[in-house]
Structure formats: structure tokens, C-alpha cells
What we know:
Elements: H1 2-13, H2 16-24, H3 27-35, H4 40-63, H5 72-78, H6 80-86, H7 93-106
Amino acid sequence: MEALLCIINALIRCTTKQAETIFGIGLPKILSTALANDSTPVILYGLECLEKLLEKGQIIKDEEDADHNPFLFDLDAEGTLSKLEQLQHHKNQDIYNKVSGIIDKFLEYQAE
């Protein structure tokens, strides 16, 4: 859990280039593991981390005038996005709200 807090803090303060480096050292696997955890706090920290990462990816997407967030493909390949979708049915309201916000903000294109 402390590792997730460190990653969240790093993603809040880092540049987009630094976010790409953090992502490249195994963040998709870390996030996938966190979202599959049984602990509500771990899941919430994982969701916060995912949100901060996708925010950096959105900046990259906008700066490069790209079609998609550059982190989504690897997150999907790792199963992170599937786990995110599964969490839409979580009994904890905080988790449900966080997941809904992430999906609405970053993944609504998938519904089109």
C-alpha cells in the first residue's frame, strides 16, 4: 500500500516523460494486482494511481495530437481495464464512485 502512495505522489509531481518511465518499469502489472486485491484501501490507492497515470497520458495525447491515451494499450493487455470494469460492481460505494469517474473521464470512447 505504501508503494502505491509513493507512485501516486510521483505521478502527481512528475513530468509526462517521467510518467512514461514510471509506467515502463512495471506499473501496469502493479495496477492490475492492486485492482484485484481484496483490501478496499489497496483498491482505492490503485484506482487513484490509475487516475493520475491516465491524467498524464491525457496530457501526452493532447500534446501529440494522438488518437488515444498512450498508456491504455498496455493497461488493457495487462488486464487492468478488465479489472476496472469488474470493479463497477463492487459493493463499496467509494470504489464504485472512483471507478465510474475514471471510466467516464478516460474510457467513454470504448462505449462508442
